[in-house]
Amino acid sequence: MAETVASPRSSYRIWLLKVGLPLAILGLAVAGFTLLKATRAVTPPVVAQEKSWRVSAIEVTPGRLTPNLLLYGVVEAPKQAEIRAAVTADVAHVEVREGQIVADDAPLVILDERDLALSLRQREADLREIEAQIASEQARYAANQDALKREEALLELAKRAVTRAQNLNTRKMISESALDEAFQTVEKQALALNARQLEVDDHTARLAQLQARHARAEALRDQARLDLARAKITAPFAGRVVQAPVAPGDRVRPGDLLLEMYPLGDLEVRAQIPFRALPTVRAALAGNHSLPATAIVDGQPVTAQLDRLGGEAGQNNGGLDALFRIAQGAQWLTPGRVLTLHMDLPPEEDVVALPFEALYGLDRIYRLENGRMAAVNVERVGEQRNAAGQAQVLAHSPDLKAGDRIITTQLPNAITGLKVEVKE
Questions:
Q1: Domain assignment present for 48
Q2: pLDDT at 315
């Protein structure tokens, strides 16, 4: 069979295709990469920027400010009276009701006085009987004195009769029996005289007994009169009735509660002052400085003055009780009501008023310096309410001066040097 022989020209073409095609493709790829690299967009390098936090700030000026304490108190009536029955009687009328305001000496409860009137009549009769006995004793004493003189005269006559009888018996003119009878008459008259003298001498003791009985009868009569007067119970002062637990027809005995009331003008507020404020309060009281307190009750203003501190601190208490005397607005108060008091303390010098948001921890705030935060340590001296009623903290620091701007926004990452921007 005949073999086909390739020509040299054809072999060259085949070799050129096998070698040149990959090189051409590689060249095109390198040219494309170079073109892409030469025409790519140039990205500027990223420069890290410091974040700025938006905050609020206020300008402060240290000055003389009055701190106050927020206290919770309870209204009390220290002179609240429990009016109780003094006699045993039936209730006839109850003239007042709970919550009613009564005037001084106004009738409150009327008791049935019939039994009391009968007791008074009996005591008056006993007294008249004793007075009659005293009058009888006086008459008896006068009669005994007159009789005593007569008894003495009769004894003298009997003695003379004995003398005559002795003379006659000496002359044998009367018998011995007649003489004995004369002696017997003298002895009988002496006994009668002694008895009469005893009656006269015993007058003082008998009169003293009667006078003692008279005094006792007078006391019982006066007691009966007092019991009768107590049948009408009147108000011991002007005030408000707390309760009247009796009704007409009830039988009351001594000690039973009839009514409870308190004076309107003598109310107090008991509130607890924390121990941290006690040194300031004690110093103010010792210096006779007024410590006023205010409260709002049902939309009405109530003012009070700190009168005294309590005498005992209870267990597990965070302060000491203080008693406030109501100066104005007592008519809006009732015992047992809870009040929110704002008590003014003595003024403090070189302090600033800040919102609580400006305080970090207990003693640190941040001042704005060149757009950055700078920590300032402060001393808390109290609290204050502004004109809008918002609570502010009063702080003192020798590093604060007029015109300083204090940051009032709470930042969780607050540190000295943190960049901030103030919201205008």
A1: no
A2: 66
